[in-house]
Amino acid sequence: MQSKGFIKLIAVLLALACVYQLSFTFKTRGVEKQAAAYAAQFPLDQQGEAEQHYLDSVQNLPVYNLGFRKFTYKECKEKELNLGLDLKGGMNVMLEVQVEDVVKALAGDSQNDPAFIEAIGVANEAMKQGSSTDYISDFVKAYSRLSNGRPIAELFVSPDRKDITLESSDADVEKILKKETEAAIGASFNVLRSRIDHFGVTQPNILRLPNSHRILVELPGVKEPQRVRDLLQGTASLEFWTTYDANEIFPALSAADKLIKAELAQAPAAAPETAAAEAAAAAGTPAAEAEGLIAEVGAADSTATAETAVQEGNFDHSQNPLFAVLNPRFAGGASIGAAYKADMAAVNEYLAQPAVRELFPADIMFKWGVKGDDKIDGRFYLYAIKVSTPDGKAPLDGSVVTEATEQYAQRGATAEVSMTMNAEGTQEWSRMTGENIGKCIAIVLDGYVYSAPRVNSKIDKGQSQITGDFTIQEAKDLANVLNSGKVPAPAKIIQDTVVGPSLGQESINAGMISFVIAFILVLLYMGLFYKTAGWMSDVALLTNVFLLMGVLVSFGAVLTLPGIAGIVLTMGMAVDANVIIYERIKEELRGGKGLSLAIKDGFSKAYSAIIDGNLTTIITGIVLFIFGNGPVQGFATTLIIGIITSFFCAIFITRLLIEWIVGKWGHITFSRRWSENFLNNTRVDFIAKRKLAYGIAVALMVLSCVSFFARGLNLGAEFTGGRAYVIRFDKPVSAEEVRQNVEKAFSQFADADASSISSEVKQYGKENQMRIVTQYRYDDTSDEATSEVEQIIYDALKSLYSYDITFEQFRNTQTDANGILTADKIGPSIAKDMTWNAIYSVLFSLIAIGLYITFRFKRWQWASGATAALAFNALLIIGIFSMFYGLLPFNLEVNQAFIAAILTIIGYAINDTVVVFDRIREYLGLYPKRNLKETVNNAINSTLSRTINTSGTTLVTLLAIFFFGGETIRGFIFALIIGVVVGTAATIFLATPIAYDLMTKRAKTDVEK
Known about the structure:
By secondary structure, the chain is an alpha+beta fold. Strand 1 (62-65) and strand 2 (70-72) form a beta hairpin. The chain is globular. Residues 269-313 have low confidence and may be disordered.
């Protein structure tokens, strides 16, 4: 092999890069273990808060020193391997911005127009039915029809709007409405991004879905799902407040510091005085340098019973307890100081004490900055807000803002924000700025201060410039904040999934067990079958897993349970390339070539089949990533990355190892005595048996169709809409007993029809776990409907527990291991979208692979045979799921994971087909005068060993996941197992014979012509 030195260099650099990326995960795990050890000294009910407090304290301290750079815990956390919700527990929420509210707000009083009301109804119905392509277009068309062609501009003309006049055409108004809708969605996205930062979760993720009004939010480890729902769906509250200057408040702040010191002197410390030193030591930082590690031990609801001697700059906690946590050195403007996130709860507690509160003006209110400032080590500013209105409300709210845009300042390289207000806002803004020249006005969204610019002069024209040391991104964020109050466009939850932490840990355990078992089985399979060369492929496989994990971390990919399945599946597929290469080398050796030449030719002749097989699987992986979501995307990500890393390891690492052994010892074996001639001398006439194969295939298709129309499919909530729960009991229960209780409970409600009374109940893993799917009020995605459903289920099932479980314990497994482990809510519009996405993804995969095979093999007949076999495989899997759901002791639900399995099989099954086709193409070139039937039969027989072995290695890994990977993905793996078995048979008995028949027919046609 040429360029060995370069390949070795690349391998070493990749290994070092992966070690670097993975090291952050190990470091954060170490810090978190130390946090748990520190929290263990507290009472059990305080340990969770103490652990989080510890981590908040060290997040801005260096915990990882690489010599050339020190990394804080926060930076390490951003670089660690991300775990998905199914492994970590948490909440996945899909929100949809209500465009209806945007249009109504823009219409003002015109929203009472009868034609307007009816047009909104038409657009809403189209959206509900899933037939809408664009809400605004549907509304405009409906209004034009219902109003007999009246100009739609009449609805939106306003003194505050200059872009819409009575002369504006319907097309122009439609463009403006779409622009305003996009702005409202952007503002909602910005508000949601801000809100999730305050949920106390690590590595939250928020993503705006393209070409839709939807926003996806993932919150790993969230503990209060209902609170999350309430906060995410609230209308943005943008306010403008007058403020106090820090110099005005400092005397009261100093008096408060002395008063708190006196009170603490009378209360003996209850917490260990070594807490700060322990925290500092855990971070690898001397205690004297640890600023604000733990000012108050115990988190938000602690009662200040502990005192820790922590140095905060020039302030000692024993002498200046308030200033030790709220440092006045960072005061300025409206900010009276700054505190670490870990110390914010203590500051709130101090300032809320009645005696302390009396020291400050009666009209003062304290609000924190929205995020920590990196310039002061991540501390949060605390602002002194002045309540200047009799009703205690803000003098101005966001409804008066008509436009806010970011732009570069006229001088310098900094950015600024331009803000315009309507007539009402202009008048009040003029008064506020005139009375507060030299002071700051705080811009507050959802209770947090985003900016507090100083007023330089009275602004009486409603046009303001907000300047500061802004980057263009910071100015854009502030402009989005100001725009968030312009149009009331609350985002409503249309889908949410809650995974309890206990189920997440069980998923991790099951995933790791299946991973280890599958890994060992594959290693043994290759070593036992291919002897020394097999053990070398095992080394390459170990390298592959290491590289795969490193690449996943470097890309910031999220590891999910299907992702672990993807890794395990990748291991089985990774050795497929080695099997193809080794079988080819054995053929070359049997042909009389020397060892070195056989190795060289074996690798070179195997390249085309390996590349084709990998590319077709990557095609389906890309389709899966585009059309899937959540865990399915995690599976697609690991599959694509795994294919790329396995190709590198199989082609380059394995060859380096083999050539090293040959160079050192002069010999290497590629088989054992019993496996040397495995399926080597077969002479089966597969083409002669094709009619029998066609008959069996047709019979299976007929059975599948009959079952499909007679029984249908066990569709998951993703495709039907509704709510699905996995519920754990404290003792074994029967599915029938649970079903009867649930259906009896739902039947008592007048609005429950037959379909919503009937609930699907199945055992989910252990005998004390049941999965319940209900369609009751499935088209109502409101929190009220969700709470009602959960209350009904609770009332129906509470008698099945051996103790008195409360409703809160039943809903939240944070406090009780039993109750609702996972909860899925999917609205009808999402269900329709998922259904069409599933259909499109399968069709696109088949078409893409068909086109690729046509391009690579230059004959449409081969593509037709391959595509027909793949379609048969996919349809048979669907048929088997239809025939056997409810009969097998595990869940055969057709959901997103099932579609992922179908696509994976489409990508995988083509590998065997490509190997056979590649050999046929080779034989056609070598023996052009040989009979086509003989050529095809010889090609199938000569590749039979590798066909069986590649499928065998994959089946070994799949069986390990099936038995040990847990209930969550058992149905998914079952589909893959069927697909691998059927796909192997379809390659031999369908794909190749169909291609043969088409080529024969073409040849006869050519002769006749």
